[in-house]
Amino acid sequence: MTAPAPLPDGAGLTHRGCVRERNEDSILTDPGGTLWAIADGMGGHGHGDVASDIVIECLASITDTEAWSDPGGSLVTQFERANSRVRDRARQLGSPGMGATAVALVVRQALASVAWVGDCRAYLCRRGALRLLTRDHTLVQDLMDQGEISSEEAALHPESHVVTRAIGGGPRVEVDVVRVPLFAEDWLLLCSDGLTGCLYEERMVMALTTPMSPQDVCRQLLADALEVGAPDNVSVIAVHMRGA
Q: pLDDT tens digit string along 191-231?
């Protein structure tokens, strides 16, 4: 007899951090356990939150049928739709720098489909080992890939905030997608760069391997980020694959 697929149980939190006056992040959490997303707005003057809201609104329109029949394709379609809508809204507001980075996850049976643009990240934690599923679309990541700087130099690089892809950044948006099989007791973690800019991966593993609910994992990671000063908005989503 085939073992039943593990069931997703998740939660999410978002916070403006300790320095920013506004929270320009937006998150999507799904009580049904299928669809999750974080969008990190940029552009300033209050327009970053407009962009991130548009991204989440587009992703939230994905139906259960679409998510199950073509999870990766449905995510890409909605990222592309969001790109057009953000650009239209930016023109209306006279805010050419308005945009968002984002990461989205569809969990279908025992398969995770992750799509992203920019430097929001997705991780998989399995048996205490943390694996980064995404690759940052940033200038610093490109320099690291080319061997021009080390990871230590990247952490201190003056242009570490510069992204090379963003929703709303151009007429077309290039979306990356990965698919990963899931097993019981796996954890999936989505986060904005406000979290990864504050915490080492070891601290994330500690939270994900301590017996806690997804809500408590999010609370713990947010508290850790705030404790060290959280200069940016912080968003985190934790999804636990429970054995059926």
A: 999 999 999 999 999 999 999 999 999 999 999 999 999 99
Quote the pTM value.
0.95
The strand pairing partners of 10, in sequence order, are: 239
User: In the β-sheet with 25-28, what is the strand arrangement from edge to edge?
Assistant: 25-28, 35-42, 99-108, 111-117, 176-181
Neighbours of 244 (CB within 10 A): 9
What pLDDT is attached to residue 153?
Answer: 66
Contact yes or no for 232/20 (Cβ under 8 A): yes
Amino acid identity of residue 116, one-letter, is W
Please give the pLDDT value at position 2.
Answer: 60
Is residue 200 packed enough to be buried (19+ CB in 10 Å), middle (13-18) or exposed (0-12)? exposed
Core vs surface per residue 82-112: b (16+ CB within 10 A) or e: bbbbbbebbeeeebeebbbbbbbbbbbebeb
